[in-house]
Every structure is written in structure tokens, then in C-alpha cells.
Amino acid sequence: MASKIFSQSSSKTWPDFLLLGATWTTAISITVIFLWVVLSIVGQGLGQLSLEFLLTEPMNAGRDGGIAPMLISTLLILVVCLAVALPLGLGTALLLAEFSVSDKRFGQWVRRSLDFLAGVPSIVFGLFGSVFFSKILGLGFSLLSGGLTLACMVLPLLIRATEEGLRSQPASYRQGAAALGLSKTTTLFKVLLPAALPGLMVGLVLSVGRALAETAALIFTSGYVDRFPASLLDSGRALSIHIFDLSMNVPGGDHNAAASALVLLALLLILNGLAAFISLRWSTKIK
Amino acid sequence: MSSLASLRQAKRNDWCLINSLRILASVTALVGVLITVFVLKEALPALQSIGMLRFFGDDAWYPLEGQFNLVPILLGTVLTALGGVAIATPLGLLSALFCQFYAPNILASSYQRLLELLAGIPSVVYGFWGLVVLVPKINQLHPPGQSLLAGILILSLMILPTVALLSTASLGDVPKAYLQGADALSLSRWTTLTRLVIPTARSGLITAIILATGRALGETMAVLMVCGNVVQIPNSVFDPVRSLAANIALEMAYATTDHRSVLFISGLVLLALVGLLVMMASVLGSEEREKTRGI
After folding, report:
1. Shortest Cα distance, chain B CAs vs residue A253, angstroms
2. Angstrom distances, CA of residue B130 to CA of B6, B152, B227
3. What is the pLDDT of residues B18-27, one digit of tens each?
């Protein structure tokens, strides 16, 4: 937090009081609304939540039973997503961060493309996935198609975090490595990447969170089927789609939808905490 | 001799490394191009056979009978997004001022953490909450509940963290010397903030609003779940509306031929709007960098 150098005595006139009142009111109301959103979902979902809910198959279109197949489908989609996004993201981030002199022009174009990608609405990713992965590559409605679509979506986030992690490494590491006559490859893989690992982990965790939260991009790519997927080429219903389907298309599905939403929120909270923990540990180590 | 060979080996490794990195980066850069190309390709048949004018001139949106009037849907998109931005902007700015100038340090950082958590809540969860909590409340006020108002409120909640967090960052970039100068002149807080801090951070604040607008325009799930999805020009905020993104999500499953192609045109429109906004934001961003370099 910056610069709280205002002396207390400087607030005297009525606009000052107005602003003081407005900022505090805003902050308090937003906190209250946040608690309202979270607590009402906890309140509706907690009664439904049990170990059995996590481990059984849905019955009666999801009104009864659990969410085991959705958890498996979600996990498989995430695995596909990361398997593709990680090498692409890591490679791109390395090029952008470490070869910014030799590949300046190219780097600028890549960055522009990533800025654009970061703004593309998720439903458009869904349209693209349904044409490119499902139709042209012939993957149909499948976990593979959904995971690949999400991989395209998380790339900007993953690359930005990784690049920042690399750029925050002190120049002395690179100079030292160069003075020892280490090749660029050795410098990258033996010095910079291990040092920047926490940054990569934060990017990874945030990307998983983004992919976990996504719904619109999966409707036309991985589909709605709510049984256990037989393979990666099988359709499977992600947790977020389950929430959507139960609350919109299944009358009386609200309680299980709330419980599923609670599971999703809990997973995201854990990931968020993990990211915060890694970056905290990292920043204290640098100091 | 052997050291020379190992040097040569190292050089070869470096050459392999940089070229494989280039290939990976090219694939990444290609994703954006592929998205544009394929959405455009699928949209072209309808653009050619139907033509732009009929999207504004047709009787109504009856896609199965070949009537493709997009005006109510475009209006629904713009109204929900602008309404959301209109509410989120003042609240986000006040939140940012709270974090930077009013709250004690510990409260400011926990409030910021809370905003980050708010930003991390999935849109489908916002939609669900809107559907089971907000919509019944609006229904008591004025039926049917699923309405433009519900969409605006949910969207403002969803984009508020974007506005607030980005604004906080750009307010933090205001040089400390300015604030010390203002204090030395014993300007009031109101004057300092409205005449000095906000104008200095202006382009960063505008960027925040632009990016939030992009997010609001493209938002699908929450809008789909709370807006009622009736294709009509709303007479009041209590009337249900349908947005472009929601329209795609609703009809893609059964759309064929021209109808499907029209949905891709909706996607293309979203893509163009967002692309324009991103471009504006990046121009503003580079202006900002020029300015700070000048100081």
C-alpha cells in the first residue's frame, strides 16, 4: 500500500467527509455482499455435502446421488489442458523473457497475440474449439477437445506469470553464468529455471484455477454426458457444467447444484491459498 | 581438442534450444490467429448469403424460419454490459481509493485479498447465486425476476474486482512527490484526490474500465442464467433480455446451416468488440509508459 502521508488534520471540509464516508461505505458493502454470496452457497450446499456425495454417481438427472464422474472428467480435462499448455507456455515465456534482444520483433508480435487472446470471451473459445478440435481434427465431443480448448484459454495467464518469474531473477545470475562460459542452454536449465520455479508454480496454480472455473468454453467441446468417461475421446461433464445444468435445466436440482458449487469454490480456495503460500515463501526467501 | 568439440556441442545445443523455443512461441502466437480465422470462416457463408442489412432489417429473431434480426440481442448485450460498467466503475474507484488512501495498511491488504477472491469466483457460481438468491428478490419487487436488472447487478459484481484491482495498481503508481507536495501546500484530501491523484492516474483508470467492459460484453454463463433470455427490446429494467454470448450458448446445440453461421457472426462481433477494446487499452498503456519515461 502506497503513501498514506495525509496528515489527519487535513480532512476538514464537507467533500472530505463525503469521500471518507463513501470509500468506507463501499468497502463495507462489498465485503458484506461477498459474505452474502459465499455464505448463501455454503448454507444451501453444506447439508447436501458428504463423502458419499463426492464418491457416487448422479441419479435422477443429478437431483440425487453424487458427482464422482464430474470430478473425474474435470480432472482429465485439466490434465489434457496442462499437458499442452505447459510446454507451449514455458517455451514462449522463456523466449519472451530471455531472448528479448535477439527476437525483439517476433516477441512483440507474440505478445500482441497473447494480449488479444487474454481478451477473447470464453464463449468464442467454445465456438473455436467446436470447429477446430471437435470438427476439423475430428475429436468430437470429448475430454480431449475440451482440454485443448482450455489450454488455448489459459496460455496468456500462464505465460505472464512464468515470464514475470523469469524476469525477476537478478541479472547477476546471467552475468555470472556468462562469465563462467556456460552455454545459454545450461544457464537456462541449471540456473534460471530452478530459481524461477516458484513463479512457474504460481502461474500453474492460477491456470488450473482458471480452467476449473470455466464453463462456457466446455459446453460445445467436452459436452454434457454425466457418466464416467471411458477414455479421453469420450464426452464428459465438467463440474462447472454440472452446476449450470442442474440449476437451469433440472427442476429440483438446486440443492445438488449448491453442493457442487461449494465443492468448486473449495477447490478454488485451496488453489488460491496454494498460490499465495508459494509467492509468500518465495518473497521471504528473496529478502 | 575435446574442449573445442564440447564447445561446438554447446553451440549446437543453444541453436536447438532457441529454435525450439521459437517454434513453441509461434504455435502460441498462432492460436489467436487460428481463432480469428476459423470463426471468420464459419461466419462467411451467412455474411454472403444473408448480408449485413438483414441483421438490422428482418422482422424478428426467428432463426428456424430464416429471420435474423439481431438488434434486440445486440441491445441486450450493450445494455447489460454498460449497466454493469456504470455501477462497477464508481464502486471500483472508491474501493481503489479506500485501499490506497483511507484504509490502514492491514485492512487495505485484506480488502485487496477479498477482491482477488471475488475475482476468482467462477461465473457459473455467480449465475447460480443470481438465480437462487437475487432473481427471487427482484421477482418480489417486480415479476418475473429474470431481467435486465438482474444481469446488470450480477455483471457489476463480477467486473468490480477488475476495476478495483487495476485502479488500485495505477493509483499506486502516482509519484510520492506529488502527494508530498500537495500535503506541503496543505490541500484538502478532496482536492488532492480529485485534482491531482485521479488526473495523474487517468489513463490507468480508463484502461481498467476498458478491460472490465470487455469482460462484461463477453460474459456468458451468469448473464445466461439470470437474464431470462427472451429476445425483445426491453421496456424497463425488469424485462428479460438476451445477450449475444447467451444466444450462442443457447442455440449452438441445435443450429444448422445459416442459423449456425449467424451464431458465428455473433461470435465474430464479440471478438471484434473485444479486440477493439484491447487495442485501445494497449495504446493507452504505451502512452502511459511514454509519459513516465518523460519524467
Report:
1. 11
2. 65, 11, 10
3. 999 999 999 9
As a CATH number, domain B56-294 is 1.10.3720.10
Question: Which residue segments constitute the domains of chain A, with CATH numbers given?
Answer: 52-286 (1.10.3720.10)
**Sole residue written with cell 523466449:** A95
Residue A169 has a CB neighbour count (10 Å cut-off) of 18
User: In this structure, which amino acid lies at residue A101?
Assistant: V
pLDDT tens digits for range B103-113? 999 999 999 99
Task: Say yes or no to pLDDT of A9 above 50.
Answer: no
Residue B171 sits at the chain A interface (C-beta within 8 Å):
yes
CA distance B245 to B127: 14
Instruction: Give the CA diameter of chain B.
Output: 88
Backbone dihedral angles phi then psi of residue A133, each to the nearest 5 degrees: -80, -45
CA closest to B97 among chain A residues: A23
The 3-state DSSP class for residue A225 equals coil
Q: What is the pLDDT of residues A115-154, one digit of tens each?
A: 889 989 999 999 999 999 999 999 999 999 999 999 999 9
**B residues 94..123 contacting A (CB < 8 A):** 94-95, 97-103, 105, 108-109, 111, 113-118, 120-123
The conformation of residue A236, written as its DSSP 8-state character, comes to: -
HSE, CB side, 13 Å, CA atoms: give it for residue B158.
33
Q: Report angle CA B154, B157, B159 to the nearest 5 degrees.
A: 110
Residue A133 near chain B (CB below 8 Å): no
The domains of chain B are located at 2-49, 56-294
Say which residues have a Cβ less than 8 Å from residue B122's Cβ, sequence separation at least 6: A212, A213, A214, A215, A240, A264, A268
